[in-house]
Each structure stands twice: as structure tokens, then as C-alpha cells.
């Protein structure tokens, strides 16, 4: 990694993410939240994938989600009703399948006992 001689920082092309920097005192990775504008340790941000983090801190993300949920209450409830119904149907089908398998196993074991 080459350093910029004027600022003694890694060149922009060498950095993993330009929004993440190290604190000179504690060497922790720091990132700025775009909502609350606070500089926070990277642990305060959700991970998007192996190398990238969210642009808002966890506290702001939770507040955004709560605000969206209140604003879209009917849509939110409809989505969760639909998921619950799908889960009920899936569970019912699994129980029926399991019951059928158990009865088949019982028949097979009875046939083995006769032989």
C-alpha cells in the first residue's frame, strides 16, 4: 500500500472504503452515520456483506424502520398476515407428510415382523 506523502494517509484507491477511517488514538475503525452525523466505531453499523457496512448506524436504522412501519402500517400488517398464513399451510402439510411417513414406516415394520 502506498501512502500519500502530503497527508501520510493511504491513497484513496488503496483504501477498502473511503468512508471508513482509523482513529489515531485507539486504532479503531470509525465511520460517520449519514443520518445523525456522528463518528462511531464500525461495530455500530450493520454489515451488508463481507467488506461493506451500512451507511446509517444501528440506532438510526432502527428508528428508520419504526418510522416506516408506522407510516405503512396496513402494508406491514398485510405482509405479516400473508407470511403467517403461508407458515400455517406449510406446517399443516409437513405434519400430514410426517403422519403419512410414520404410517408407512409402521406398515413396513409390521411386514418385516411377519417375515
Describe the structure.
With 115 residues, the protein is α+β, with helices and mostly antiparallel strands. It folds into 2 domains: 12-58, no CATH class; 72-114. It is built from 2 helices and 5 strands; from the N terminus they run E-E-E-E-E-H-H. It has helices at 58-71, 73-114; strands at residues 20-22, 29-32, 39-41, 45-47, 53-57. Strand 4 (45-47) and strand 5 form a beta hairpin. The protein starts with 19 loop residues before the first strand and ends with a helix.
Summary of the model, kept short:
With 115 residues, this protein is an alpha+beta fold. It is built from two helices and five strands; from the N terminus they run E-E-E-E-E-H-H.
Question: Any chance you could write out the topology, listing elements then pairs?
Answer:
Blueprint: E1 20-22, E2 29-32, E3 39-41, E4 45-47, E5 53-57, H1 58-71, H2 73-114
Antiparallel strand pairs: 1-2, 2-3, 4-5
Q: What is the domain tally?
A: 2
- Widest sheet: strand ordering: 1-2-3
Assign the structural class, choosing from mainly alpha, mainly beta, alpha/beta, alpha+beta, or little secondary structure. alpha+beta
Estimated share of beta-strand residues: 15-25%
Mean pLDDT: 81
By DSSP, the count of extended strands is 5
List the total number of helices.
2
Q: Report how far the terminal alpha carbons are from each other.
A: 75 Å
Helix content: 40-55%
